[in-house]
Amino acid sequence: MSEEEWERFLRESVTGAAGAPVEPSARAREVERRLRERSGQPEGRRTYSPARPRRRTGWYVTGLVAVVALLVGLFPQQVVGWFGGNDGGQDGAPLAAESESPREAPGAERDLPPTLAEPFRGSPAARWADGAAGITVPPAKATGWMDAAQVERALRQSRDFLVAAGLNSRVLHGERPTKAIALLNPHQKDVQEYLRTALSSTAPTDKTDPLLLFSRFRPEQSRLVGDVVKTRGRLTYGEGKQGAVEVTADVTFVYPVTPAGDGGRNAEVVRTIVRREVVMSWDDPAKVITEPGTMSLVSYALDMTNGGCSAPTGYFVPPFGTADEQPDGEAHQVDPYDRSKRIDTSNGTTATGNSCATATRS
């Protein structure tokens, strides 16, 4: 062997020859043994396994939330019903105050009859406010002959009239509506004549029925269930004749009642539903004869269901026991909770509207 070959032999003995097999280390042998023990084909040391693509659940959830929010905005009653929240029970979320005229009737409720414990069950009124709280009063601003403070007082007194006429417990039990009458202009002759006739006659007519303005039940016939009357409605106002501030009230009252002589736990409960539209004029005393703190009536109209369909008696007559006499035919059906339509006042300044129409629900 030449000296050059001997030197190359020594050099390759130290550094290793190109392409010569390499003895694996102890760690490499251990890893190889573990891979052989696993089921399936072991991956090579330099193979690449791509990560599984992530599911885009974030996009799906965001899209679902957006769709639900849109549906709630457009159809709040129906969407609440889908999730079981609109069951007509007392635990339903209260509705926001009515700030504008609704576009449609409330959504359908579960068919649950009222009870003494839950007199508004199965009714849209279960989510309405109690008493005066359900009558929305708008912000006041200077209008006609009144400044903002005077308009605010007129709005407050207008609501006081509705409370005294439709929510006062004594009036509901048939007593004279003294507080409501005190807010009416004593110099308005036609209204004063209506009051005298309506509250004294034993046989009122459609035009002289006190129910046009006041809610009354005969104590010997029916009694209210609990102390709560549900209401929904609002006041609006604008400038009327001769600079007067004209306030319009559109309010629905729901009265749960039961027969007066039935005190049992399973006593029948009927809801008398009353909607009134009253236009009140707060006149300029420099132009109209009036008294401070009183207003004139421009018009008043009534719609009611479950209040009696016989000749006017001056009191609501709930149809206990058997169905009240109702006209047949689909043309006479009405949804008493539909506040999207105006009360028909085509008969003049006073009207009973569809008081004897067949209610589609109560």
What does this structure look like?
This protein has about 350 residues and is an alpha/beta fold. It has one domain (about 90-360). The protein contains 8 helices and 10 strands. The chain has helices at about 5-15, 25-35, 55-75, 75-80, 150-165, 170, 180, 190-200, and strands spanning about 130, 135, 220-225, 230-240, 245-260, 270-280, 295-305, 335, 350, 360. Strands 1, 2, 3, 4, 5, 6, 7 and 9 form an 8-stranded mixed beta sheet that branches. A two-stranded parallel ribbon has the order 8-10. Helix 3 crosses helix 4 (about 75-80). The chain starts with a helix and ends with a strand. The model is unreliable at about 40-55, about 75-90, about 325 and about 345-355 (pLDDT under 50).
How are the SSEs ordered, and which strands pair?
Layout: H1 3-15, H2 26-37, H3 57-74, H4 76-82, E1 129-130, E2 135-136, H5 148-166, H6 169-172, H7 178-181, H8 189-200, E3 222-224, E4 230-239, E5 245-259, E6 270-282, E7 296-305, E8 333-334, E9 350-351, E10 358-359
Parallel strand pairs: 2-4, 7-9, 8-10
Antiparallel strand pairs: 1-4, 3-5, 4-5, 5-6, 6-7
Helix pairs in contact: 3-4
Number of strands: 10
Tally of helical segments: 8
List unreliable stretches of 5+ residues.
41-57, 76-91, 323-327, 347-354
Counting helices, strands and paired strands, the structural category is alpha/beta
The portion of residues forming beta strands comes to 15-25%
Instruction: List the helices and strands in order.
Output: HHHHEEHHHHEEEEEEEE
- Cα gyration radius (Å): 39 Å
The profile of the biggest β sheet is: 8 strands, mixed
Cα end-to-end separation: 118 Å
Based on Cα principal axes, name the global outline: elongated
How many structural domains does the protein architecture include?
1
Work out the helicity level: 10-25%
Mean pLDDT across the residues is 81
